[in-house]
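Good day; I would like, with your permission, to put a structural problem before you. A protein sequence and the structure tokens that stand for its backbone fold form the material at issue. I would ask you to consider whether the tokens describe a fold that such a sequence might reasonably adopt. I set the record out below, with my sincere thanks for your time.
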Amino acid sequence: MASGYGLSGGPSRCFPFWQELLACYVVNTNTDDVTGAKKCLPALEDYYECLHHRKEKARAIELQRAYRRAEAAHPRENAPRPGAIRNLGLLDREEDTKDVLGTNRSITAGNGK
């Protein structure tokens, strides 16, 4: 939050990063020369990442892409059909339940076997 206070009244989640950035600017710059501010770029990046989470979001998207590529390259064998997942034998579909479970025994609602 812009006020520096978090939702619970204490310091905001990014306040420590802001203090680090401000300390860097105080140490490395003065009113006549601001070229030392270049030394504060890592602290500035950390503060912006805390505020916006851009790197974290980009990494999550890349992990999802890599997972989907790996899944597409090596599809599962014996993957259940969507219909088999949908009913799971709950609505008098004993044949589908047998297919899903891979058993030949009879499953009936009355005797619980």
Remarks:
- The helical segments are 15-28, 41-52, 54-73, 82-87, 94-101.
